[in-house]
Amino acid sequence: MKFVSATGQMAAAVLLLALIVVAAGKSVEKTRRPFPGIERLGSRLDSVRPPKGYVSKNPRVVEGRLTSRLNHFDPQDRNTFEFTYLTNDQYYREGGPLFLVVGGHYPINPYFMDNSHFRDIAAMQGAMLATFEHRYYGDSIPVEDFSTENLRFLRTEQVLFDLIELVDFLKNEVMNDPNAKVILHGIAYAGTIASWARQKFPNIIDGAWASSAPVRATVNYPEFAEDVGNIIREKANDQCYNRIFQAFHTAQNLLDAGLTEMVSEMFNTCEPVNVENTVEVEIFFFAMMLSLEAAMAEDFDIDNIARVCDQLTSDEFDTGLEALSNFLIERYSENRECFDLSLDNLVRYLTDTDIDGEANREFGLRQSTYHDCTEFGIFPTTSSPDQPFGSRVTYDLFLAECQAAFGEFITVDLIYESVRLTNFHYGATDPRTTNVLFTSGALDPLRHLSITYYLNLLSNARVTPREFTGADIVSISDSDSEELLLTKNMAEQYINSWLGPQINPFYRK
């Protein structure tokens, strides 16, 4: 199956791909081009995103706009904004439930409403399908720019109330059924919102299926690099893992020995790596890791891992460092004349407050970074020895990123307190909620932040062996393993149990 790398998420997801390759050189146009993989920088918590450019061909998919409060928690603030939603009544039968696909950190897209196992269950249940656009993304922007002051309304509590207002509107104004049951579904961060909506509003939300949902906030997240390494071993071989390990550790040793010009020339950096600036050294290694991962996850095709590894393990190269530098330079040479890995280059993108800035409009870079710095953390360091990407990416890099983007008010204490409060408000991996099913893949880094064992009244959790992020959300097919089929059937059974007896279309009063 096609997959979105768990980094993409994090992969995916991954907070600093902004550091990666931007052309500097003679051409101003090249200098300003976004770096490869920038979409991952804005989507660490959205490990699975709808395919870019997907347009529904279903004429029953209808778009609408709903007015919502900018600040749901201040009765004196009467400011409002509009957000976009989509509905599909193709399968709806009178008396049926509402199946709502929760939107994530990306512009609205009907893909999961049109193509998923959740859609298939909705068809069997005679459900109205819907999805919505997360505030601050796409055309659902509540402010005039993305200044730090204006980003203060980007909070999960605000998003939850947007969702509940939409549910109330759809039940009463679209379905004309205020008693309709409501089932939510979300993937990655959107799955987190789905599970928290059921937790906070059990009188409104009847159940939630949360796939790969990172419900535990944390500051340090070394599991990301560990699992990327495990995926390389699982889908390629140990030889590739060892080559990457050799490359990163050799680069570290060369820089420590003062051979900065050699390393800079090998990787074609715009300026020599500044070993006096520890943040820029961290940027160098983090950019290498994420640019390599971006190549492996291209088009969300898992076979790319083996193809990239074939190049890295070629007999053409004597060392891992030579193989890695050659691969990266060749892969990105058409888009840039050199690799700009400076802190200034990163800051230029992170401090862009223009709503229509390319990185903000298309990838949600500044918005998602703010959400990470003030609520979730989840910074993918290389502090674990059980991964191949060296040891130079530390929490200091992400703190520098947050402060550069939003100001010195973001301190170590503020980030730790924000993470603590997120876990305190929602319960982290012990939310004491019912009618939620948590599903993950055994090769998905987000599973470390999700719930992998949970048995409460009408709630459960399951990890599917040998699967990646989002494998369980796809419609059932002949290629599904027995374990994956079991997970999909479990989701269907739980949703059916939350809804009660199925609608009989032939019933007459």
- State mean pLDDT (0 to 100 scale): 88
* Biggest sheet, spatial arrangement of strands: 2-3-5-4-6-7-10-11
Helical residue percent band: 40-55%
Gyration radius, rounded: 23 Å
Description:
The chain is an alpha/beta fold and 509 residues long. Helices cover 40% and strands 12% of the residues. It has 18 helices and 11 strands. It has helices spanning 28-32, 38-41, 111-114, 117-125, 156-174, 189-200, 223-235, 238-256, 260-266, 278-296, 303-312, 320-332, 343-350, 358-363, 365-376, 395-406, 412-426, 482-499; strands spanning 7-13, 61-69, 80-88, 98-101, 128-132, 182-187, 207-211, 218-220, 377-379, 436-441, 460-464. It has an 8-stranded mixed sheet, sandwiched between helices. A two-stranded parallel ribbon has the order 8-9. Strand 6, helix 6 (189-200) and strand 7 (207-211) form a beta-alpha-beta unit. The protein is globular. It starts with 6 loop residues before the first strand and ends in a 10-residue tail after the last helix.
What's this, in brief?
With 509 residues, this protein is α/β, with parallel strands linked by helices. It is 40% helix and 12% strand. Helix 6 links the parallel strand 6 and strand 7 (207-211).
Keywords:
disordered N terminus; disordered C terminus; signal; Ser_carbopepase_S28_SKS; eight-stranded mixed sheet; serine-type exopeptidase activity; 12% strand; two-stranded parallel sheet; 509 residues; 11 strands; alpha/beta
